[in-house]
Amino acid sequence: MARGIEIREAHFPGRAPIEAYGNGGFRFADMSHRGSILCLPSGIYGWDVTGDTPLEASLFDKVLRETGEIEFLLVGTGLSIRPLPGDLRTALRAAHVSSDPMSTGAAVRTYNVMLAESRAVAAALVAV
Q1: Which end of the chain has less neighbouring CB within 10 Å, N or C?
Q2: What are the boundaries of each domain within the chain?
Q3: Residue 46 to residues 18, 34, 52, 127: CA-CA distances in angstroms?
Q4: Cβ neighbours around 115 below 10 Å, total
Q5: 3-state secondary structure of 127
Q6: Assigned CATH topology for domain 11-125
């Protein structure tokens, strides 16, 4: 029996700086990903969010499962800054995680600096 193409969740199993962003995606670890990404202690994941997607706490479930290893969450909200939902901010505060929404470009730059400093940082980055 022939098997079709298997579509798997996009995942890079490690931490890596973001080498480039724009044109609807990101480049890291000599690879490229089209679309938004989550950069977590467990790796970099594809994230099904666009600049038009309402930011809801449920979109951050994967982040909340790793809060024991995260002190800072940078949220790149696209070209413009959008506020984080109140229930997400409350959940992050309860887990002792500082969160900061900013443009995606600023979040990428800040993430790279904090990662280079070996800080406990994660990023949720909306593709631009």
Answers
A1: N
A2: 11-125
A3: 14, 8, 17, 10
A4: 18
A5: coil
A6: Hypothetical Protein Mth938; Chain: A, (3.40.1230)
Query: Which tokens go with 38?
Result: 């989550």
pLDDT in tens, the chain (128 residues): 555 554 456 678 889 999 999 999 999 999 999 999 999 999 999 999 999 999 999 999 999 999 999 999 999 999 999 999 999 999 999 999 999 999 999 999 999 999 999 999 999 999 99
Q: Which residue has the tokens 């413009």?
A: 80
Pairing status of strand 72-76 against strand 98-102: parallel
Determine the 3-state secondary structure of 58 from DSSP.
Answer: helix
H helices, E strands: number in the chain: 3, 9
Q: Of the candidates 82, 127, 83, which has an alpha carbon nearest to the alpha carbon of residue 105?
A: 127
pTM score, whole prediction:
0.91
Which residue bears the tokens 């406990």?
120
Pairing relationship of beta strands 43-47 and 36-40 according to DSSP bridges: antiparallel
